[in-house]
């Protein structure tokens, strides 16, 4: 993995974490993208590079949770 890809992934993760905190604080509908990017320490346009809308953040979180569950199930069924 290149340094550029590592940086991109780290930025995306910071955005996800900041978005989750904002969603918890103000709810999805009232969440402010400005507050998210400020908390993540990135430019406003960076949010939209990674996520076209706030809803896409939720889709990404759901995808990550599904992968975590699938990995747990695989490990469980592979255990003798």
Question: Could you walk me through the main structural features you see in this protein, from its secondary elements to its overall organization?
Answer:
With about 80 residues, the chain is an all-alpha fold. The protein has helices at about 5-25, 35-40, 45-50, 55-80. It has a single domain (about 5-80), classed as Homeodomain-like (Arc Repressor Mutant, subunit A). Helix 1 (about 5-25) crosses helix 2 (about 35-40).
Task: Describe the structure in brief.
This protein is mostly helical.
CATH superfamily heading? Homeodomain-like
User: Could you name the ranges where pLDDT drops below 50 across 5 or more consecutive residues?
Assistant: none
Q: Which sequence of SSEs, written as H and E, runs from N to C? A: HHHH
How large is the count of helical segments? 4
| Helix share bin | over 70%
Distance between the termini: 34 Å
CATH class: Mainly Alpha
Mean pLDDT: 94
Class from helix and strand fractions:
mainly alpha
- Might you state the CATH topology name? Arc Repressor Mutant, subunit A
The largest β sheet comes out as:
none
Shape: globular
Strand content: under 5%
As for the number of domains, it is 1
Radius of gyration: 15 Å
The number of strands is 0
**CATH architecture group name:** Orthogonal Bundle
């Amino acid at each position: 993995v290149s340094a550029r890809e590592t940086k991109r992934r780290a930025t995306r993760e910071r955005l996800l974490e900041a978005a989750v905190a904002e969603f918890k604080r103000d709810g999805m509908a009232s969440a402010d993208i400005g507050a998210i990017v400020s908390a993540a320490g990135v430019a406003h346009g960076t949010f939209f590079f990674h996520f076209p809308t706030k809803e896409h953040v939720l889709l990404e979180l759901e995808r990550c949770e599904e992968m975590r569950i699938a990995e747990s199930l695989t490990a469980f069924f592979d255990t003798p």
